[in-house]
Amino acid sequence: MRLSVLPSHLYGVAACGAVRRWARGRRRFPGLADPNHPRKSIVGTTRLRHLQAWVRSPEEFAVPRTPFRARSLAASVALVAFATPAFGQESQVAEATPIQEVIVIGQRDVPITIVPRGLSVSLGAEHFAAINAVNVEDLMKYAPNFFVRKRFIGDANAVPGFRGTHSTQSARSLVQVDGFTVSNLLGNSFGFPPKWGVVGPGEVAQFDIVYGPYSSRYPGNSMGGIISITTKPPQDGVEAFATAQYFVQPYKQYGTDRNFDGYTGEAGFGWKQDDGPWSARLSYRRLENQGHPQQFYQLTPATGSAASTLVTGAVTDPDLITKTPVSGAFTVEDTTQDQLRGRIGYDFGDGWNAALLAVLWTSEYDGTSPTTYLRDAAGNPVFTGRVTVDGRQFTLPAINLSVTERREILGGLKLEGPVGDWQASLNLSRFIIDKQRARTSTGYLNGINSTLGTDTRQGDTGWWTGDGQVERTLGDHELAIGFNSSLYETDQTIYGVSNWRTGATPIFTTGTGGRSRQLGAFVDNAWQVTPAVKLTGGLRVDHWRAFDGRIGSRVSGTPRYQSYTDRSDTAVNPSAGLHIDLPGDWVGQVSLATATRFPTVAELFQGRLDGNGNFDINSFDPNLKPEKSRDANLMLRRAFDDIRFTGSIFYQRVEDAIFNQQGFNQFGIVTSSFKNIDIVRQWGVEGIVEAANLGGIQGLDLDFNAAWIDAQTVRNRSVPASEGVQFPRIPKWRLNGNARYRFAPDWQISTGWRYASRPNTNLEGTQRGDTYGYMSELMIFDAKLSWDVTSQTQISVGVDNIGNDKAWVFHPYPQRTFTLELKWKG
Question: What totals of helices (H) and strands (E) does the chain contain, helices first?
Fold first, then answer.
């Protein structure tokens, strides 16, 4: 999958006419005429080097006009993308003013790093300063119609969701850090989130989000959206920086009542050579946290009569999906993470520059402290066996202890510069899961006695990505041509061991592996037809191949492997758009696209073996099809003095949506695995308000957004009962917002809120609740107070979830959490 960030001087839509755009922004947003205006960032500008192409004489590109006719979307796109028609002897458009601004929510005075087709959001320092951010994904938690499934501080399974994207559809998002891939497209579930841990929130300069696959520059994994994280570049001379945070969460649920706390520490320095080509930035970050329990044990009704222990302490929750008593809590999420990050830059002086990024990220998860609520007559804790609760007999579930270790490495190289009249860029990256080892006991007694268990080891796992493009201005056109490539590979082996802590005497049990490769090419064009009209369009072609899929088990005392059949497919996807100035000082944008998201390694190579060492045909679907979407987005915007309103209507229809469900496989047998849903459809309406100096109060800024979503399973032959039902985990309503008030030169107070109505928990819509195991309503309010002690030092205190809303995403979300932060820069 192609996952690169475009270099800041290659944004076709944003590039042409930077100065004219700025002038238009001042006319539309009068407050921006003041360079010190707190919302100067609302209309962004493009770097001055974009003007080089703009002022070039149009006669240089004079060619005959080609008529623009189309009978279909594909034909229209082909003409928009490939034609360079309107370059006549005198380019009236190139000389006309003004050119309309690009529609970007929250845009600052630097360009957005993703081509902004459809709804686009750009967040910067003024937004970050108002957020209690411990993990980098916290920085976008108030973005419009957006969420991150973050269950606790340091959560390794924080999956982003856009609009009607399910919170476990991780393969429908592209996430990049400084242009390098951190999307884990090895699978498609909560177990394959982006690798957020390669950057800390204090290192982020800009956070950009684009919703949907409306640019042909990006592959089908942009079906949900794209996230680009840009880190802070080295400044002139030498700078140093440090941040320390402490946080505590008083948590109470069922029989758990205790404080969970942790800390982060980050420090580093940046350097840029005076009158020289070199620059560098190096940082180290450590996080330690005790997160609240993520799951709870429930007793299992016992059959027959046998000796049992009379116990107290079991908790009854009548709203649980399974009505049996709660007997305890899984281990707390005791997390330790270390990150070492370095970036080196070199400016060749002829317009070419290079950047090299390297990140080492290690993490450990200690799951050796499960909790039981049960006590016998003597007051001793009870972890195993058969028990009696209120006259009924139950058996305790297996309580396992575990330890997980990971070591992950990201390396990337970026080159960019001019090639004749073209601007070129090349990105290469490699992400390696160098070590991933999970050791788990087989039951509680084996856990505390350090005996039998399993040892799961990751072999060659990670991904390669490479992409390049060239772009230039041709009269009224901004033309880009490029390629994308990726290789994802995984290898996992599970051993039975005699000592789960040390992994002693391993015996092979099962093994799986596989690879997927994707090669893509695109052409993309933005054509300024008139001063008030811009057409955009593109075409991309992708070739995908899945191979080396294998599964093995122990047969007659030795490992035995079988192979999956290799798969390959090709997809062609067009995109088109219209950006237009409308009467009454309105601006409109229409975006259309199709996208193809191919199955991941885990979705394809998930099969199991039966007792004879053969494929279990009930466990996998070898004919899994790629997801194919048709997307449309309409946006309107208008600025009213210091208030800007943006409205959006979106539509997406996905054929063969891949989802883990229970139903009939290709052999007509009921099974639970990834299957294709025939048709899933979503549409919705979004309203976004950005206000500066609200109510005439200097320094009071507000961002507010509301979204209504209708996401339905239209046709599903595997599970007919799901047809016509709201798709699971997608709420009907989302409201996010953030207000910031600088009430004194050195003081700022802010508040944020997130609301989501109660969604369905399962595909059939029969499970709706507000407790463990369900997807619940969410209503969370946050606050932060910051004091600039000196020009170099800042102290902040904050609280998240002020009302202590007990919300659930099957697992419990965090309850009320307090944060203390100290920042220093020198």
Answer: 8, 40
